[in-house]
Amino acid sequence: MSVEVGSKLHGKVTGITNFGAFVELPEGSTGLVHISEVADKYVKDINEHLKVGDEVEVKVINVKEGKIGLSIKKAKESAGASKNQNSGGGGNPRRRSESFEAKMNRFLKDSEDRLASLKKHTESKRGGRGARKG
Q1: Which of 13, 37, 63, 76 could disulfide-pair with 54, CB 3.0 to 4.6 Å?
Q2: Does residue 107 surpass a pLDDT of 70?
């Protein structure tokens, strides 16, 4: 079984870094799941989602110069899409927009929290008020 873009494979997490996780695929090849491809939501710490030894289903999203790009998120999406197609249900478009609005509200709150934390951290590094001489 060769590794081709679009194929879904099972693999085992062999290493974790701050930017993603290395997954061993069948036939011994290894690919990288970038931190942005781990889950549908923002992933601050990959260790909250994966650990070495986890069995995962991944989708091959690219193969460049011998490097294999993988996605756990897209493997789940394509599985969900095929289930939804078979259900025959139309789905509620209003519900989808509420979900989007909830995501945007959560993103805005997280963003404001991060910005406040960053400002507080930078001020403490500068020494607070009146630290500049000039």
Answers
A1: 13
A2: yes
